[in-house]
Design brief:
The structure is a single chain. By secondary structure, the chain is of the alpha+beta class. The chain has helices at about 5-20, 25-30, 100-115, and strands spanning about 40, 45-50, 50-55, 95-100, 115-120.
Amino acid sequence: MDFRKVMESMRKTRDRIAENDDPERFRKMGIEVIFGQGRFIDGQTFEVNGERLEGVHFIIATGSRPVILPIPGLKEARALTNETALELRRLPWRIIILGAGPIVIEFAQIFSRLGSKVTVIEKDRRLKGRKT
């Protein structure tokens, strides 16, 4: 397999998905989008940015953003995130992955299948993966 072609395909897929995640697109569809941290006031009230919203059902779908953890030496090690890994131009001969969430495990499989030696380090005793 051609590493550059695989990575280019993954970048195109990421960009195509990102277009559909634009908050303005949702607003045009009549969906209110609020950014901020919130908390439950009671079983039917959620407060975010000082505004209280009431509802009977709540779906918790907080998502995540990649971060470089404050581990000594990590920045100097040229750490990657799931986003910056897509910018690699050459297949690394070895890659060490900290954490075992579903997205990064997919990256582990991709790099392994392309020929990198992959090690996953996870503090828990099992891989997080997808819940069934």
